[in-house]
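Record type: monomer structure entry
Structure origin: computed from sequence
Chain ID: A
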Amino acid sequence: MARSMWKGSIAFGLVNIPVELYSAVRDHRPKFRLLHAKDEAPVRYERVCQTEGKPVAWEDLVKGFEYAKGQFVVLTKDDFKTAAVEKTKTIDILDFVNPAQVDERYFETPYYLQAGKGADRAYALLREAIRDSGRIGIAKIILRDTQHLAALEAIGDALVLTMMRFSDELADLGEFSFPKKAEIRTAELKMARQLVDSLASDWNPDKYTDEYRDNLMRVINAKVKGKSPKLHEMQSTPQGAEVVDLMARLRASLEGKKSSHAGTSKKHGASKHRKPGGRRKSAA
């Protein structure tokens, strides 16, 4: 079992529930190192002073903030301690909110919270209370010396803590230019909606795989064995550089979907009797 990366407690009101924090994601992408092409020896990274052109030892490094071009102010460990908020070991729930009101752009990385020793009953009680309320907890946590905003929700038997962005971390939509709804013609909207409906499906995350990563691992394994890789053909959407008539493109897409559906129905005549499966989508 993985080791917990943080131990503390969930705190709200006068309630305090011991928990342990675990990463909820697994990175399966292959890792690479830079090698010298001549002899395939690994290359080390060196910290080189731009003025002297010589490597600098870790003990000789300090942290600096560039407040103007080429002008730095150096911060010491004491400076960081002065700025730091109180380093607690608690997930402090500030509010319980309707998840439908939270913009998806605020959510970042999920973590699993496991009940601490002797906290199973309290953990389960909080989990079910959150589930029944239909709300998520908005909390603050100090992790790796940095304060984070986080969302606490019940998913299955777990309490899941998802790190969030603060509001000032999101770029203001007003800084960008987007088309207005008035530019859309009714006929175009109707046909576009038909195309959307033709692709409607139940959410099944296992349906979507990283084809590039799988092919890359096949290439790596084949090179290790001195063989030619057998690759999966990746599905792609044709990319056109020119702007085409939207209605014509929509019609072509719909006709393609209809012909594909007709072919599938003939090939699998009994498929209409199957019951569609669904997966619950979490708020975060």
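Annotation 1: The first helix runs from residue 77 to 83.
Annotation 2: Residues 204 and 279 are 6 Å apart (CA to CA).
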